[in-house]
Every structure is written in C-alpha cells, then in structure tokens.
Amino acid sequence: MTTQNQNDDSVEGDDSAVALAALYAAERTEVQNILGHALSLLSVLMAYSTFIGVAWATRAATIPHYLIPFIPVPILLAIAWHSQLNSRVWAHNQVIFILEQRLLDRVPSIKNPTRLWIGHTSGRLVVEVPILLKERRFAMAAASIITYGGVAAIVLALSIASIVVPIAINRDWQGLASVMAVVYAVVLFLLIASYKSTFGINIEKMDEWAKSAHDSFSHQFKTTHGYEEWS
Question: Domain range spanning residue 90?
C-alpha cells in the first residue's frame, strides 16, 4: 500500500517534476548527513580502541582493575548508535529508490539495464557482500568483509579480553567480570538482531510501519490534504 494526497490530480506535471527533484535532493542530503555522523562515530570508536590497546600493551599496571570489565561499554554504545544510523539510511534509501524511479520515468531515453543501476543502487552493486559473492566479485567482497569484519573483530576482542583478564589473569573482580560477560552477551545478541532487522527494511515494510504509526499516533502523523490508500 502507498499513501497519497487527495489533491494529487490538481498538481501540474512541471510542478510535480520540480517537487520530485526537491524531495530527492532533500533525501540524498539527509542520507549524506547520516553517513557523515556514522563515519565520525566509527572514527571515535577506532581512536578509543587504539588508545585502550596501546595503554593495555604498554601501561597495563596503570589501569585500575575494577575498570577493566567496563572497557567495552563505550564501544558497544557507539555500535548501538551506529545501528540506529544504519536503520535510518536504509529507510531513507527506500524513499530515494521510489523518487529515482519516478524521475527516471520522465527520461525515457534511459533504458534497461542502465536504468537498473542509476542512483543509490549503483553503490549496492559494489559494496554489499551477498551481491558481490553471488556475482563472484571476490576482491570487492573481501574489502567489504575486512571493513565490517575488522570492526566486529575489535569489538569482540576487547569484550572478551575485558572478561578474561580479570578472571584468568588478574584474578580479582571476577564476580563483576562474570556479570558483565552476561550483559555483553545479551547486548551483542540484540545488536546483531538490530542489524539483521535493518537489512529487512523495504518499501512494503515501510508502508506497513507508516500505516500502523498513522493509526496508532494519528496526532503525530498528520497529512496536509488527508489520507487515503490506493493499490
């Protein structure tokens, strides 16, 4: 299902093209802003991880033992925030895809298969691991796996080390470390579930969620010219 304004028929063709272009530009700008925040977040995560790694390797004696089980907390918070940003990007990409198709409808000279990859789809063809593996573009797939797998490895390594060191090496604050081990296991499970849910976002899912939100929170989701459904 798709939402539609009741006064759509009154919109002239030229105005509609301008409106589509304006909406498209706004969506692209929003996605770029979100991606900028995500990259900044990852930069902070890498800087923190590097600092902890160097301090642990060279000045381990200066790190209070009771703080060791809490070392992964900032990283997990950063990953959780990145998950939210990732979900926003996927949601906006559904809008961008619709707008791109409507704009391409106005340019009949662009035919398939070129039309298939114009816009945000072109990026997916060169970075998404499932697509790259199926198309046997293993070098590109390796770069994507190293990028995301490297971050995951850092998170797991620090999480495991923060639990193992107090229990097996320092042999103090073992109870706290055990509690935090359970906490981290639950948090990592939820984060994995969050990322997995993000990959399931599509146009149909966004329609379903928007309709449900409109029905449940109509005072927050108001349309200027009313609301109706069409298939």
Answer: 12-205
Residue 226 has pLDDT above 60, yes or no: no
Using left for φ > 0, alpha for ψ between -120 and 50, and beta otherwise, residue 173 falls in left
Residues 6+ apart with CB under 8 A from 5: 223, 224, 225, 226
* 221 within domain boundaries: no
Domains of the chain: total? 1
C-beta pairs of 7-13 under 8 Å, 24+ apart in sequence: 7/225
Q: Could you tell me the pTM of the whole model? A: 0.80
Give the separation between CA 123 and CA 138, rounded to whole angstroms. Answer: 16
Name the least confident of 14-23, 152-161, 179-188: 14-23
130-150 average pLDDT score: 88
Those residues whose C-beta lies under 8 Å from the C-beta of residue 187, and which sit 6 or more positions away, are: 76, 80
pLDDT in the model for residue 11? 43
The total of other beta-carbon atoms located within 10 Å of residue 144's CB is 17
